Amino acid sequence: MRVLVTGAGGTLGRAVLPRLRADGFAVRAMSRRPRHDPAAEWVVADVGTGAGLVEAVAGVDAVLHLASQPGGSRRTHQVDVLGTRRLAVAAGHAGVAHLVYVSIVGVDRVPFPYYRHKLAAEQVVAAGPVPWTVLRATQFPVFLDGLLRTASRLGPVVGDPAVLAQPVDQREVAARLAERLTAGPLGGIEEFGGPQVLRFDEAVRAWRAARGSRRPLLPVRFPGRLGRALRAGGLTTTATPTGRFTWADHLTDTYGGTGGR
Ligand SMILES: NC(=O)c1ccc[n+]([C@@H]2O[C@H](COP(=O)([O-])OP(=O)(O)OC[C@H]3O[C@@H](n4cnc5c(N)ncnc54)[C@H](OP(=O)(O)O)[C@@H]3O)[C@@H](O)[C@H]2O)c1
Fold first, then answer.
1. CA–CA separation, 29 vs 42, rounded Å?
2. Within 10 A of 92 (CB to CB), how many other CB atoms are there?
3. What Cα–Cα distance (Å) separates residue 154 from each residue in 44, 141, 157?
4. For the segment 149-166, what is each residue's pLDDT rounded down to a tens digit?
5. Which one of 8, 154, 202, 257 is most buried, counting C-beta atoms within 10 A?
6. How far apart are CA 157 and CA 142, in angstroms?
7. Measured from the CB, is residue 236 less than 6 Å from ligand 1?
8. Rounded to 5°, angle at Cα 5 from 112 and 168
């Protein structure tokens, strides 16, 4: 099976490429910039403008759509919602048999502006011309790690101690995506989370221990509907199977031996 991977140079994309190759897929990787990598066929295309899309989808059996542009409402709408539509239409014209879209657990419950666009993009995929699957994943540990570094820039780690998270390793998400490609279109949404639901204060405690950091947690209760959704587990899922790689495993791999494994 020949698969086009959009967003192939991103965090998840870099885990997906070796997984698909190891599982015997022929991979075409897409980026907005030319890339040179003898292990994959790279094509240049931009879902935000449509440039290069017709060529990118030509001759592939499936599209794994990971490209996304968080961090700016107009730009996110242009890339995630309209860009997903452009991709779906191009894939439909090319006779692609399966479009897999990667979304996030909680897009239907947690009122982040980015999630509104992800939910709209899911709907574009479901209403589009290509048989489809949506895989909603929880946060990757590297993403949570980055958030904590940002949250602690001014000294203490600032956050709501009761927010729940369920980090899942991007390599395990990649393996799940490969299984979904093999299984064919689900015509529905599957959720995939990590092995443990953690409170924010627990996650921070382990993170501080692993980094040998003395930065205290400055508890801030997130207000309103957003805070309630995050504390009620809006970012977590009861779906099984789950990944197996824990937050402690991530901390051990990243900072060495003191993650509490
Ligand atoms: N991060 C998480 O914790 C997490 C959790 C669950 C689900 N997800 C979802 O998983 C997907 C991948 O996430 P990620 O963390 O790997 O994201 P990422 O590292 O930010 O990578 C996203 C990629 O999208 C590509 N892109 C951006 N704008 C584009 C455009 N206009 N046209 C074509 N490509 C464009 C970029 O590739 P180039 O710069 O090479 O063009 C970039 O490498 C996203 O849909 C995200 O919502 C993420």
1. 5
2. 14
3. 39, 22, 8
4. 988 888 899 899 999 999
5. 8
6. 17
7. no
8. 50
Q: Is 129 in the pocket of ligand 1 (CB under 6 A)?
A: no
| Any atom of ligand 1 within 6 Å of the Cβ of 68 | yes
198-199 vs 164-165, strand pairing mode: antiparallel
Q: Is the pLDDT of residue 44 over 50?
A: yes
Ligand 1 pocket check for 131: Cβ under 6 Å? no
The 10s digit of each residue's pLDDT in 61-89 is 999 999 999 987 899 999 999 999 999 99
pLDDT band at 177 (very low <50, low <70, confident <90, very high): very high
Q: Which atom of ligand 1 is nearest to the CA of 8?
A: 43
C-alpha 67 – ligand 1 centre gap (Å): 4
In tens, the pLDDT along 196-206 reads 999 999 999 99
